[in-house]
Amino acid sequence: MRRTISVWVPCPRRTGLSTTASAARAREWSGEFRPDRRAVREARAAARRLLPRLGYRGELDAPVLIVSELVTNAVEHGSSPEDTALLLRLSVHPYGGLSVEMTDGGSLPAAPPAPPPHPEAESGRGLFLVHALGARTTWEQAATGKTMRAFLPLGGTVPR
Asked: Exposed, middle or buried by CB within 10 Å (0-12, 13-18, 19+), for 60?
């Protein structure tokens, strides 16, 4: 027997959106955000509100910070004037881990992320923070842009 959950949440681009996921697989939600700085605040609020509804059992500060960093990177480095939306997907896995995916209209960087910047620099720590929280990241180029994924295991230990 398949059980499903439905989550409704206001979306900044529409009056709302509905999503259904199988309880036997990862519980998922995805939503679109405008490619501007307001998206960061809106995505953080959506993650904080939705993760418990999707069955995430861990504390929320680390996943919300990961969402914030991935959306910030997409807004600052991945979106172009032609982009109409950024796509955020949250997936809570049956064993408790969390995947955060951010898709934008950009392309993959030519090199891996740089080490953290000078201690007095005001930016450049996003992916360093994501990794420091115990998340593993991957990138994928698609015809319409790139997707960055961060996997955060429940308890902070990345499976190999």
From this structure: middle
- Taking the whole predicted model, whether its pTM rises above 0.85 is answered as no
Where does the pLDDT of residue 155 fall: very low under 50, low under 70, confident under 90, or very high at 90 and above?
Answer: low
Distance CA 80, CA 131 (A): 26
Report the Cα 17 to chain-centroid distance in Å.
Answer: 17
Percent of the chain with pLDDT over 70: 66
Residue 69 scores a pLDDT above 60: yes
| Angle formed by the axes of helices 38-53 and 61-73, nearest 10° | 140
Residues in contact with 106: Cβ distance below 8 Å, sequence separation at least 6, in sequence order: 74, 77, 78, 79, 80, 145, 146
Distance CA 154, CA 146 (A): 26
Rounded-to-integer distance, Cα 66 and Cα 44, Å: 9
